[in-house]
Amino acid sequence: MQQKTNRQLMEIRTEHVPQGPFNITPIFVKRAKGALIEDVEGNEYIDFGGGIGVVNVGHCNEKVIAAIKEQTDQYLHTCFHVTMYEPYIELAKQLNEITPGDFPKKTFFVNSGAEAVENSVKIARYATKRQGIITFENAFHGRTYMAMTLTSKVKPYKFGFGPFCPEIYRIPFAYCYRCPFGREYPSCELYCAEYLEDFFIGNVAAESVAAVIAEPIQGEGGFIVPPPEYFKKIKAICERHGILFIMDEIQTGMGRTGKLFASEHYDVVPDIILTAKSLAAGLPLAGITGRAEIMETPHVGGLGGTFGGNPIACKAALAVLDLLNAEMLQKAAALGEKIRTRFLELQEKFEIIGDVRGLGPMIGMELVKDPRSKEPAPKMAKELVGRCLEKGLIILACGNFGNVIQIGRASCRERV
Question: What residues are annotated to the active site?
């Protein structure tokens, strides 16, 4: 049968798939390996999209594929709630060992990052017997109802889908390039963190708050990196009031920032940490890891799902963890320095680059019409994404204004 073209496949997609699931590029993939994608017409692209942060170890990594094939020869699914299997508990054991925090932990698995977010909220509310959850401006936590409520940006994620979940409160994030309080770091003395105490006065009592949930780097929000002391202050405030601190490492984990978890850059230990995306190198898997005494509070049967912790995905994740050794993380960190140096050189040359920020190879450039007014330049960002695609490079834009060019979705992959 003759291979259909991108245009022909797009016609089929338009006829049979609703418009809701958006598409960044007009290409259909035939194969992918390492950092490269080949479309159905034989065109080759360097992939800096990485499946939106999912293939840190590269497309079709040989060790991951071998682990998947080995598992498919044994069994595909039994449901962990019916008949248990070793890959699930071995992966839980390893995540308990490698996530930040020198204390007993427990882990269970679901299918997606959004599900991990949903379950972390369930656990926090159950454990604290409180209802309130505090999230941040510019946050992105997923598209299911609780995750969408926690997400900040309205269009396209929330528009028309209300009403949203109750008892969710939002505070400004440490967005130093566009400080919501009009201050400058470090003379601000991190008022954005101290503001949390003020927030308890006029918005929600601290005694009613179960958890604060945050991304170490706000990904979809614009690759926003807070100052190094920020999360320590937030965590200290949480501890004073018996509030749990949830770190959403769904995008930043698994070597994305040159460390296994971005939390390590801030020397902060969350009570619950969420992993997904690159955890299983492209298979649907997400983990909720937390202090054992917190994770044990929900009653038997209160957590779970039919496909959560699928054995094939768990075996893929075990292969990923085996790959993410010190040498690979060092390579990722070195790549990050190379990217940062180049971007800073470009910033010196082009005024349209208002800010360069990131950790390790998870780096973004914020484009502005004028460096003094900082007026966002989303049109230029869109044009740059399109021009790169024409040249065979897939990059993505993000941020509330759509004006941040992001790369580093492929920090650890082969042949970068």
Answer: 140, 248, 277
